[in-house]
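Students often ask why inverse folding is considered easier than folding. One informal answer: many sequences map to the same fold, so there is more than one right answer. In these notes we will look at a single instance of the problem. The structure comes first.
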């Protein structure tokens, strides 16, 4: 079963779409790659790969437009605007997308699994780190976690508070970190083409230093930074975590 909704999001000052597949089960929010929209995961076969888990009622899958990712790669906006949008996108996820998922599941306290590949992994891990009150675990595949190279030297607060690699080292003990220590993150990457495992290790080690449970999985050389690898990875992890 597939359903779609859209609305005008005030934090980002534009429309956003949320698409759902499945009837019931643990809610999973999939973040697209940088240039992707809410239905990218279906076009590239990821929804089909998750079909057995949805059929068995294990998971209910959602995906939203990658509005911030599209801005970063478009070349049409300043780094400061992209940083603002990255932070605003997080607000949209927390204040609008999460409540929409909870309303659809008819359960306001159901933890959500966040997942994504490439910059989608960034958004999945950033959502877990900033909002462990609503996200239960995160799955990052072939993650791109360090966006500082896109800033053109314009480092700013919007970027800092959006980037786990930058704000986590200074995150003090308190409700956010305490709850985050009860969550779980998986970092997966292959040894094939276009992969950059260093960024996954950096964030995983940082979470470990903060006492946040996580695991790093290295897949084989046949697993490139590409959809065939992610179609194999994600069902494996959701079968374990959902």
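Output (designed amino acids):
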């Amino acid at each position: 079963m597939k359903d779609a909704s859209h609305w005008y999001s005030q934090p980002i000052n534009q429309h956003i779409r949320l698409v759902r597949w499945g009837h019931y089960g643990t809610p999973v929010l999939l973040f697209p790659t940088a240039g992707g929209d809410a239905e990218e995961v279906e076009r590239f076969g990821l929804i089909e790969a998750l079909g057995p888990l949805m059929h068995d009622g294990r998971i209910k899958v959602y995906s939203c437009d990658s509005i911030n990712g599209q801005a970063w790669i478009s070349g049409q906006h300043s780094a400061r605007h992209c940083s603002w949008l990255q932070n605003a996108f997080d607000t949209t996820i927390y204040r609008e997308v999460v409540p929409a998922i909870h309303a659809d599941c008819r359960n306001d306290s159901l933890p959500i699994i966040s997942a994504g590949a490439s910059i989608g992994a960034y958004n999945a891990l950033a959502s877990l780190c900033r909002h462990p009150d609503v996200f239960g675990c995160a799955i990052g595949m072939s993650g791109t976690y360090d966006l500082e190279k896109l800033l053109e030297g314009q480092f700013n607060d919007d970027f800092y508070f959006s980037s786990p690699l930058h704000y986590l080292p200074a995150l003090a003990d308190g409700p956010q970190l305490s709850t985050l220590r009860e969550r779980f993150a998986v970092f997966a990457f292959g040894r094939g083409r276009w992969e950059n495992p260093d960024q996954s290790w950096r964030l995983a080690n940082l979470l470990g230093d903060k006492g946040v449970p996580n695991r790093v999985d290295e897949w084989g050389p046949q697993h490139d930074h590409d959809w065939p690898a992610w179609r194999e990875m994600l069902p494996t992890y959701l079968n374990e975590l959902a």
